Amino acid sequence: AGSAPDIRKAVETSDCLLAIGVRRVDTTSGSFSDALPTERIDVRVDAVDIGPDNYQSVYLKELLRRVADSVPPRASAYPRPSTAMQAPSVAEVPPGPLTQEAYWNLIQGFIREGDVLIAEDGTSEAGCWGLQLPPRCTFVTQAVWGSIGYTVGSVLGTLLAAPERRHLLFVGDGSFQLTAQEVSTMLRHDLKPIIFLINNGGYTVERAICGKDARFNDIANWAYADLPKVLHPGTTARTFVVKTAFELQAALAAPHDSMIFIEAVMDKYDAPQAVFDAGHGMADVDYGPRGPQHRPG
Predict the structure, then answer these.
(1) According to a count of CB atoms within 10 Å of the terminal CB, is the N or C end of the chain lower?
(2) Distance CA 242, CA 249 (A)
């Protein structure tokens, strides 16, 4: 339910759908709103299902190599989106408090070819799903497991694996609080990620499922942008607290000669539409038609 309509149609009406390593769980199926063809080919690590038939000891690596070698190359029927993206001009940046829409529009113009994007579960991941990526970008996430806090350690790993590339971490305040200490290791090794942290007072993605105003979805507010100085006194990290689109635009123009840490303060009820679609879909699965997702507001 969270997919673009043309993407969903292409997948669900395919006459030969090859599902490679798919784990059909709530977070990968739009809360089980998918209608995949029953005759699809499900390829797992060591077995394959074709419709009702199961084949054991068919290994994913060998199978994909044979498929790639046997199918002649052809142009995709689906055109790639344009990668000629420009950051909004000053005149186009909306006034007032920073919103999710303005935030992701500015991020879209900031991304460049070859970037590594690490997207945390929740609002950050949903916002990144809507981005059009230039060539040779790498997108790292783990929606299957829902393991919040994963990305802070993950960006440490990608930085060490590919130090010549630019690494952008997109994380929310709730997830960040689980593994924030890994920023200390990045600073210790003079690594230079660009960290985008959304400070919206807790678990917004959970508010869309259950407990819009419940205390269990609130968290303690930290001075997030001050943490680099706490974790590594004397650091040259550039840190920003942004509350408007103009402030975010100025932070994005900062020289990238050290770690950049941008704390973006936004309303706790503001989120990409995919968060509400997926959250309400999950609530339908969990609570049914009498659940909180059907109440006004």
Answers:
(1) C
(2) 9
Return the exposure string of 155-187: e unless at least 16 CB atoms fall within 10 Å of the residue's CB, then b.
bbebbeeeeeebbbbbbbbbbbbebbebbebbb
Give CA angle at 213 (211, 218), nearest 5°: 90
- What's the CA dihedral at 245, 247, 249, 255 to 10 degrees? -160
> Tell me: the pLDDT tens digits for 155-207?
999 999 999 999 999 999 999 999 999 999 999 999 999 999 999 999 999 99
Instruction: Name the pTM for this structure.
Output: 0.86
Task: Show contacts of 24-27: CB within 8 Å, 24+ apart.
Answer: 25/144, 26/282, 26/285, 27/121, 27/143, 27/144, 27/146, 27/278
Q: Is 198 helix (H, G, I), strand (E, B) or coil?
A: strand
47 strand-pairing partners:
56
* Radius of gyration from C-alpha coordinates of the chain: 21
Report yes or no: 16 and 41 within 8 Å, Cβ to Cβ: yes
- Residues 6 or more apart in contact with residue 71 via CB below 8 angstroms: none
Max distance between CA atoms of the chain, in angstroms, equals 62
Cα–Cα dist 239/245, whole Å: 16
DSSP-derived secondary structure for 234-283: T---EEEEE-BHHHHHHHHTS--SS-EEEEEE--TT---HHHHHHHHHHH
Residue 278 amino acid letter:
A
> H or E stretch including 35?
none
Distance between first and last Cα of the chain: 20
Give the residue among 240, 297, 244 at the shortest CA–CA distance from 266: 244
Burial code of 275-293, b = ≥16 C-beta within 10 A, e = fewer?
bbbbbbbbbbeeeeeebbb
Band (80; pLDDT cuts 50, 70, 90): low
